[in-house]
């Protein structure tokens, strides 16, 4: 049900949200990914996958050639092997992308140029995907990237998603119960809710970590939990902070 995720992202962009993030030295002792995984498994689901996405603005460049130069420079800075990758064009965007693997973690490094007033705004996105077993390695890689970006006076925005699976098909009421049990575990307050015959999605705020999205400049939100009853067997659960950025 990726359309639900996309709907939320569009809504947040339209609302003019602001992402607040702690300085690197003030991070919580336990990463959000570890807390989300514990909450998912504590609700009775089996942890399946973890995704961490790091995004930052790189400033403005004059053209496609400069986008590629900037991408290669940052790939070198982040110790990402650069093959003979070429700049591709998707609609009016220019995209430079490299896939890599490190300690069982699948990574995607992407620099995108968005045209604006005769130039291009450049954005860097790093995606790290792995299993619960690879969580420690995701943390190590994330910290290394985060430090490199912070050292360059860039402010990375980090989103984290954990997916799990219940072995049985759950009714909407049962899905709601699982989601609310996770809210209780994370001491979260419900803010919004969406649901249909097979999907339940609840967003809210938890003091478990400090980064959050400010809706309309005032309401704090940093947690979204969604369930989706599969057509074949089982029920998926996805937990994200500050919102879910993966398919669910």
Structural summary, described in words:
With 248 residues, this protein is an alpha+beta fold. It has a single domain, classed as YwmB-like (TBP-like, 2-Layer Sandwich). It is 28% helix and 41% strand. The chain contains 5 helices and 13 strands. A 10-stranded antiparallel beta sheet has the order 3-4-5-6-2-7-13-12-9-8, with helices on one face. The chain has a 3-stranded antiparallel beta sheet with strand order 1-10-11, with no helix packed on it. A hairpin with a 2-residue loop joins strand 5 and strand 6. The radius of gyration is 19 Å and the shape is elongated. This is YwmB family TATA-box binding protein. InterPro entries: DUF1779, YwmB-like_sf. It holds the Pfam family DUF1779.
SSE order and pairing:
Elements: H1 2-14, E1 18-20, H2 32-42, E2 46-61, H3 64-77, E3 88-90, E4 93-102, E5 105-116, E6 119-130, H4 135-151, E7 157-166, H5 172-185, E8 189-195, E9 199-205, E10 212-215, E11 219-221, E12 223-229, E13 235-241
Antiparallel strand pairs: 1-10, 2-6, 2-7, 3-4, 4-5, 5-6, 7-13, 8-9, 9-12, 10-11, 12-13
